[in-house]
Specification:
The protein is an alpha+beta fold. The protein has four helices and 24 strands.
Length: 496
């Protein structure tokens, strides 16, 4: 048998193979890196495009928000709307057009027990039917008319029977809000009909955003109707002219700052008194006179004067003075958590002083503005432009009485400054006696920072005695009495 013997010669030098393997590995790594870099480049490109698209979309969304604010709150005519602008990012935005959102009439609305349906007919530039007729087999309806010029409630009607016909298009001076309430124990189908075949119940706005070469179009629907869930049964009598349990406000005429459907305050009022009052001493043995020109019953007297002026000016609600004495802080007399988040406005109904109660009482002292607007309108909404800008407060920037308020020693004043011995230092204390320098801290109606309530802390001395006693912020003598005529700040509050 033939046998083959194969002999392999051992290769003594393997450097070539190692080099080849190294080249192959490096080539694989290079290929992997190229693929990864390609993926990263594509990802970066996609991310950049997404970022560009988002900026364009945000610009279009911004335009929609601005336009809807013009329609819903500024009541601009939808037929004359225009808008173009640019954001800080460089993205541009533009309002394109609007389309009406309509429903066919008659419209049927099915409400479960305690549900309600609200329809706002307040789009400026829209032609509404002259009359609407609302039908149903029970429940109630609230119709509110709002003046187009100042957006104040001019009429508030409550209906307990159906059908009811409402003049809508014939009333060219007012907008209208309709609230249908099923206060029965079963489902009710209501109907709305008119002479026209359809009814505008909203608008859709089209806006465009542009960033670099990317454009985004956005269509935003703005409906003016809504079905609300269960109504609080305590509020079913809202608008009947009586302040019922669970209501914060009601009456005839209906208060301008009251929600016409829930009878809860929408915002609260504040003002500075048109009158000025003598802030001084109570004559020993004298009888307090609430209707006089003196604040001789202290805080209660100041509250009474605020309430009297507000009632005479037809301002709704209850009012107290922003003033402290040694036993009470001004903020505690006004604060109520149920309305603490509401705005305070001046009597012109529009000017916002603070967004909520908490802004009135900052927790730390600073030179920043506390108020968004000065409290410079009196109870009639008239701006006070005189030099008599000082207000009696006895209160620090945080709503508390001034530190040391009930411990100042006045024994060092001579008789000329003290204004005679027949007067005791007792302007707020109901004859309790003792050194009570109430009223020696005041505010300026021209200020928005802490000087609105405590300008003496900034160095203002109210009165002619400032040169003789600069450390005592005292009031000048009037008619041989240590008194000064000062305004009061008055704030609406909710009594528990």
């Amino acid at each position: 048998m033939l046998k083959l013997k194969l002999k392999f010669k051992k290769i003594k030098n393997q450097h070539g193979i190692s080099l080849l393997l190294a080249v192959l590995i490096l080539a694989g790594m290079l290929a992997t890196a190229l693929v990864a870099s390609d993926i990263l480049i594509k990802t970066f490109n996609i991310t950049g495009k997404v970022g560009t698209s988002e900026k364009a979309y945000y610009a279009a969304e911004t335009a929609a928000e601005i336009i809807l604010n013009k329609i819903n709150h500024e009541y601009e005519d939808v037929n004359t709307l225009s808008l173009e602008g640019e954001l800080d990012s460089g993205a541009e935005y533009k309002f394109e057009n609007y389309n009406l959102e309509t429903v066919s009439l008659p419209l049927e609305i099915i409400l479960q027990p305690r549900e309600s349906y609200q329809l706002d007919l307040d789009i400026e530039g829209i032609i509404y039917p002259d009359r609407l007729t609302v039908g149903g087999s029970g429940g109630s309806m609230v119709v509110v008319s709002i003046n187009k010029t100042d957006q104040q409630i001019v009429q508030h009607d409550v209906y307990k029977t159906f059908p009811q016909t409402i003049a809508i298009g014939l009333d060219r001076d007012n907008y209208h809000k309709i609230r249908i309430i099923n206060d029965m124990g079963h489902q009710i189908t209501y109907s709305i009909q008119a002479t026209s075949s359809d009814l505008a119940v909203g608008v859709s706005v089209r806006t465009r955003g542009i960033y670099q070469s990317t454009e985004r179009l956005l269509n935003t629907k703005n409906l003016k109707w809504q079905i609300y869930g269960a109504v609080n049964p305590e509020l079913l009598d809202c608008g009947d002219g009586e302040l019922d349990h669970g209501e914060q406000c009601d009456g005839k005429p209906f208060p301008a700052n009251c929600n016409p459907f829930t009878c809860q305050w929408r915002y609260l009022y504040t003002f500075v008194t048109s009158q000025r009052y003598m802030v001084g001493y109570l004559e020993t043995g004298g009888e307090p006179d609430f209707d006089g020109d003196n604040l001789d019953r202290g805080v209660d007297d100041a509250d009474y004067k605020c309430q009297t002026l507000a009632r005479a000016a037809n301002l709704p609600g209850q009012y107290r003075a922003w003033i402290s004495d040694p036993w009470r802080n001004a903020k505690d007399e006004i604060y109520n958590p149920r309305v603490a988040e509401l705005e305070y406005r001046l009597p012109d109904h529009e000017t916002i002083v603070v967004d909520n109660f908490y802004q009135l009482v900052p927790t730390s002292d600073s030179e920043n503005d506390i108020l968004k607007h000065e409290i410079n309108q009196n109870e009639h909404g008239v701006i006070i432009n005189s030099e008599d800008i000082y207000v009696a407060t006895g209160t620090s920037y945080n709503g508390n009485k001034v530190e040391g308020y009930d411990t100042i020693n006045i024994s060092g004043f001579d008789s000329g400054i003290f204004c005679g011995s027949k007067y005791e230092w007792n302007p707020w204390s109901y004859h309790t006696g003792g050194p009570i320098p109430a009223g020696t801290t005041g505010g300026r109606i021209t200020s928005k920072d802490k000087n609105w309530v405590d300008c003496t802390a900034a160095g203002d001395a109210i009165g002619w005695c400032e040169n003789k006693y600069p450390n005592y912020h005292c009031f000048p003598c009037v008619n041989d009495d240590w008194k000064e005529q000062l305004h009061l700040y008055c704030f609406q509050y909710l009594e528990d």
